[in-house]
Specification:
Number of strands: 17
Largest sheet: 15 strands, antiparallel
Distance between the termini: 38 Å
Strand content: 25-35%
Structural class: alpha+beta
Number of helices: 13
Radius of gyration: 26 Å
Number of domains: 2
Order of helices and strands: EHHHHHHHHHHHHEEEEEEHEEEEEEEEEE
Shape: elongated
């Protein structure tokens, strides 16, 4: 595939392409404020609220009034009224998305319970082999050695089921051994225990899925390999001081103080977890997801592993940006690839995302000398970030109280249904600032594209937790 930007879609799925975007330089999109049929006072309030959340970009942001049902209200964009944005940055009229992703955990309990019961049934063979109980339904004799084998199968299978229910990533390992032992003891008493083979088929699927998604060739294994390599080079870092803020525009200085980044060690790495939902187009079905991310600031790196469900089928996406080059891969059940992207467009897109992460998740990195800052006014700043030959631009909008409320960039392009990439404004309005250990960060945000018909929210993100410098 060429470095100018290649994209491969094996099954026509576009959902993850929207989650990362693609970068091309584009002119600033213009939007005309639409008329509101309400009374003047109510209309003014509505327009102010729309401005507060309509300038979009990448990661964590509020939900729209109807977004909970998968329907968006299109709002005009006013990129000049930063005071309106600031005044409404804490507005709570937008329902925060909290549900959906928990279903990923709930669905584990169904196979966990079934496999657990299957494991416990093996105790009958152990009990008969040692003569603890009379089980007339088991007509074939079971010796003590075979009774121990039945016990081993019970322990391995129920352990695997319990690990699955608890969310352990290595549940498939005892499950694989349990599958072998279980089928062996079933064959030894086939006339009485043949039905256990049906349950073992479910266990086989569970073990295979675990190996594909957690085994040595999985996205998770790649993620851990790259993360451990980066964590191995961490060294103690100096503290961010007021002197480090000298060259920053005033709103950026206030932001670093509000987030309590001043006085903290300089950020080399940050690890975080997200929950939320994502979709590919206006009106399409929302997909709940859980995501884990490891990023490095000393050598800009972003590793993003997301797990979602599409029509109930598990889907994995792995974004990897290392050494100035980025890839994105998507599979169904860890086995069937449906999307792959790489090349210059992908590299540029991930450069925007890297800088977006720095602004929203690691404010202490904004003292980086690779960032060229420009002041606009008391609540707006512009930035140019350069890494490995890619230079991207962004506008940062702040509340009067100092919090960053939006990030927007024209240096990404959206993957269209015909396989082309169209210049679109990308934005990430954020809100709900709270404490995460020693720092104060946004906890909720949206990822948006500005389409010809209005803004489209394709992702909603809840920040679950974040740690810095390998802690």
């Amino acid at each position: 595939m060429g470095r100018t930007g290649s994209r491969r879609s094996l099954h026509g799925s576009r959902w993850c392409m929207q989650s990362i975007g693609f970068s091309k330089r584009s002119a600033t999109a213009e939007a005309v404020e639409q008329e509101d049929p309400r009374e003047p006072a109510a209309a003014d309030q509505h327009r102010a609220d729309a401005r507060a959340w309509s300038i979009g970009v990448w990661t964590v942001a509020p939900g729209s009034p109807s977004g909970a049902q998968g329907r968006e209200r299109w709002r005009p964009v006013d990129t000049t009224n930063t005071r309106s944005i600031a005044a409404h940055s804490g507005a709570n009229r937008y329902r925060r998305f909290r549900g959906g992703s928990d279903n990923l955990s709930e669905m584990r309990w169904i196979p966990s319970a079934l496999i657990g019961m299957h494991g416990l049934i093996h105790l009958m063979g152990f009990a008969k082999g040692f003569g603890y109980v009379d089980l007339p339904q088991l007509t074939q004799p079971i010796s003590r050695p075979w009774g121990l084998a039945w016990l081993a199968a019970a322990v391995l299978v129920t352990t695997s089921a319990a690990m699955l229910g608890a969310g352990s990533r290595s549940y498939w390992i005892p499950g694989a051994f349990g599958l072998v032992v279980s089928q062996a003891v079933i064959l030894s008493a086939w006339g009485d225990a043949w039905a256990g083979t049906v349950a073992n088929l479910l266990l086989l699927l569970m073990v295979a899925f675990g190996w594909l998604t957690e085994g040595p060739r999985s996205f998770h294994a790649q993620y851990l390999h790259d993360a451990h390599a980066g964590l191995g080079r961490l060294v103690p870092t100096p503290i961010v001081t007021e002197a480090d803020l000298a060259r920053l525009p005033d709103p950026v200085k206030r932001y670093l103080r509000v987030t309590r980044s001043v006085g903290q060690p300089r950020v080399q790495s940050y690890h975080l977890r997200f929950r939320g939902r994502i979709r590919s187009a206006p009106g399409s079905r929302w997909m709940p997801f859980e995501a884990e991310q490891q990023s490095f600031a000393d050598q800009p790196t972003r590793l993003f592993l997301m797990r979602a469900r599409m029509f109930g089928v598990p889907v994995e996406a792995f974004h990897r940006a290392v050494g100035g080059h980025a890839t994105m891969q998507v599979t169904v059940a860890g086995a069937f690839p449906i999307e792959e992207a790489r090349g210059d467009d992908m590299d540029r897109a991930e450069t925007v995302t890297l800088f977006n992460d720095m602004c929203l998740l690691a404010p202490g990195t904004l003292i980086d000398p690779d960032i060229a800052w420009g002041a606009v006014d008391a609540t707006t700043a512009r930035a140019r970030f350069t890494y490995r030959g890619q230079t991207i631009a962004a506008t940062l909008l702040f509340a009067s109280t100092g919090e960053l409320v939006n990030f927007q960039s024209d240096d990404r392009a959206r993957a269209e249904s015909d396989g082309t990439f169209a210049p679109r404004r990308f934005s990430t309005p954020v809100r709900d600032y709270r404490d995460f250990g020693p720092v104060r960060l946004m906890s909720f945000g949206e990822a948006r594209w500005l389409l010809p018909d209005g803004e489209f929210t394709y992702g909603e993100f809840n920040l679950v937790d974040i740690t810095y410098n390998g802690r």
